[in-house]
Amino acid sequence: TLLRRALTPIPSITITWQSTGYRLTTDHNTIDLHRFRTLVDTARTAEHDQRAIILFEAAMDLWRGAPFATLDLPWFDALRAVLVRERHAALLDLTDARLRTGQHGTLLPDLTDQADECPLDERLAGQLMLALYRSGRPADALARYRHIRERLAEELGADPGLPLQELHQRILTADPRLTERAPATYSAATPTPRQLPAAPRSFTGRKDELAVLSKVLDTATETTAQETTWSGTLTPTAERTGTGPTGAGSTEAGPTAVIATIAGAGGIGKTWLALHWAHQHRGRFPDGQLFVDLRGFSPDGQPTPTATALRGFLDALGVESASMPSEPEAQAALWRTLAADKRLLIVLDNAADTSQILPLLPSSPASIVLVTSRDHLSGLVTGHGAHPLPIDILDNAEARALLADRLGSARLAAEADAVEELLAFCSGFPLALSIVAGHAQIHAQLPLATLARELREVGIDALGDDDPAASLPAVLSWSYAALTEEQALVFCLLGVAPGPDISLRGAAALTGLETSAARVLLRALERASLIQQDIPGRWRMHDLIRRYAVRRCHADRSVPAQETALRRLLDFYLHTASAAERLLIPARQPIDLPAPAHGSSIAPLPDLTAAMHWLATEHRCLLAVQQAAALCGWQEPVWQLASLLTTFHWRSSRFTDNLAFCTAGVLAADAIGDPAIRNRIRRHLAVAHTQAGQYEDAMRVLREAMAIAEETGSASDKAETHRILSWVCTERYDDEAGLDHATRALALFRTLDKPVWVADLLNVTGWHSARLGHYQRARELGLEALALHRQQRERYRDGEATTLSTLAYVAQQTGQEELALDYYRQALAVFRELGDRYLESTVLDGVGYTYLALGRLDEAKASWQQAITFYRAQNRLENAERARRQIAELDRMAD
Description:
By secondary structure, the chain is mainly α.
């Protein structure tokens, strides 16, 4: 009543009562945030800069310091950060418009202050450089570029982006266009994916091939026009193909994306061509650009699984892990649905064969797919209408132009004979030319004649062979010989390092160097075109160069030296994974790891978010290093990695990966023979089988674990095995057996002085009791468990939240729905904080039943719908079907 009385004088506000509570309604124009966003959106679509400036400035006038400054609540912290980013983006857009209208002089003081506050903002730095240059201060503009380049290198290990590099070059050459009132170099950021690696700096030739690709683009444009309805929008792909809302089913009935295949030998410049063309035309694909290296001809013989590529695309389009289907067919269907009617540019690099490509093709005729491969992919051409584009070596003029671009025309003219010899030896292979140019740039004091003589003495045998691996070894050998001893060592070790790429800290551990020294050497190898940094802070080798590096490592480095380096890298992954697990689940007894090898290191993980991010980023490398350890016969780290990653796999719903890691772990544990290890890893494997719905396999493995525990008489192993058996019984809805195992585990844990696990088993026992209808007993056990959890110094958050869920279930079953909702909300908050989607989905299911009992049908339906999404992503199909039936019953009741 007091609130209504206070707000009644404001005519635009009304307060009404609904079944869920009071609702305040007001005109959006009275809310400054809505007015700000409307003004900014209108400004960004304004036809004239002067109009845009007026609108942007009106939006900025609405700001009065920090948003929600007086509300010190965690929820507002996240919202406050979003709003600050929105204001920053709008301010940058306003600056662009003012620069285009010649206001660089008045902008300089504010731009300088802003750039000092945000020293890593490349767009802001570019605006300041442009304003300085237009104000007659080119030296200051160049100094600003050096400043941000040094900061990026020191803090991120990265170089400025291509737009800032291009602006720097234009200032150096006094490009007259910089003083024109032209569109700014930088445009407003958008949430669309921009995955293209940087465009090749020294691109020459390929005019005919570029023309063919542009013709393919015109084909896509014509097809799109034919598919456009009277309203100017594309007909939904699902309707054209008859696939329905999920996008599943055959796409042969309707149009598909326009495909071009770029085929040729390794090192011939396929990716070089694709990326150059893609960057030229990326503006015609407003929905974004996607890129994936399919590693079809990688040196380790392991192409990127199609499911991995699909997951990467779905991640880029905003699909969260919890919503990710587990089956590849479902992932492909979701990808087709999300890509339908979008204008996407998709580059599928280094494909193995047609079968690897097909699930990655969108059904939108407005999209273009560029595929590069050593295979001509005839199946894609004949069966799916792909436009084939075979490419060959560069001609002599194009090859000369490439060297001139890298080394300068003056240097080439000064040693014309040596240049002719270099060109003859390289025979137009872009990779060979790039390596030659890189070597000449690094050793600028070395005459080109000396380089040509060294190349002549080494020779380039079989340069025109069909096998690209045999066509460039001499060039690579020559490049390798020009490296310093330290550079050569790093090059060799990077070749044998497991995984598709490596981080700076990983490279430091591999080589036994400090990170600063490792960064210097990595940059030297990058300049020499021997490694690439497609992602800031992560380096990878081209397939051919990696194959050569492995050969050189085996030839020039002793096996013990290689093993020592791999052990350092393995310890880096192992100990960092252990640190991550301690953040994920502090109550678990950590694995007793030996001290890391001398020269190894651990990545800093300040909090839970950092731990989850590191595990997700390094996951493919962790899998590769586990496989490498198994091949080396290092059994201990194989099972240790499997054990350390189980919680991460659980929380991120990576159940297939968990099964693979744990299966390898069991083999390693059996080879070691230690009963405690064999028992422990079998428990993890049983959980993995259960997550995959393989209950019989889970029970079989647990029977093996129990037999081992019986042989050794280990009370701890028996207790842990009974605990997992109880959980498997929970998933199988066998509460009688579950209660029996939980009771046995509880009795054993009481004798072991493990209060956290006593609390956990009190709750499990209570859960099964509740499921069997013994609600009073269940409540008593649950309250005892909750109190014991909250007494611990290092609280087991998962166990505490699970106990809250049990108490909620008991309350709901005994008619105390409001109390149940309170318990459920507490549990959900913890599971969401931990990122535990598995248990979050179970709680959402229970919340649905509670809302149903309260008659709040819409909220029940919403809770079940969210639970279904999570269940399906986790392959818990029975749970999903049960929740679906509940929703169907609600819909029937509503009708």
